[in-house]
Fold:
Amino acid sequence: MKKFELIFILTVLGAIIAVLVNYPMASQILVVSLSLLSIFYMYIGFAVFLDIPFRELFGKNRFGQINKQRIVGAFALGIALSASLIGVLFKILIWPNATIQLLIGLSGLTLVGALSIWRYTFNKSEFYHRIFIRLALYIPLIVFSIFIPKYAILEYQYREFPEYVEAFKAQNENPSDPELQRKLDHFWNEMYKKEN
Structure:
């Protein structure tokens, strides 16, 4: 299952790069890849964190020798990572409530991280190393996503079309204004003509 996790992570990184360079269908690829990684952590991540092989995941004794606190911690980490990744998706695509989602996920990761550090002082288990690796990978991404300005990615993507960026910002702030929507559509069509 670690291979699946790595494949999902690499796909997400590729999709983020594709969005930044404004590759066709990059947003759709990003939605699918980040959603799959989020679902993976939500429902199967605990098995990766607990190092349960896939063959044993659905067996009767899958949790037999595992400490209950570790099981709860692994589930909590999976939920926090899942929420955080959805927040990153919302932030990149400029969807509403991205910051709230990121803060909820970061709070969960911080709690799991603090408890893991405390438990690691008593028991230097490999389980905590697996948690620390994920925290070291995702916390910087989430903090960066929280502090990046709302339209920074859009401004980078369409840096050659500032009129479109300004029209998008105006329409996004007032979504019920039909005039702003017409202006946005006009600049989108102009931009599309210039690219082709």
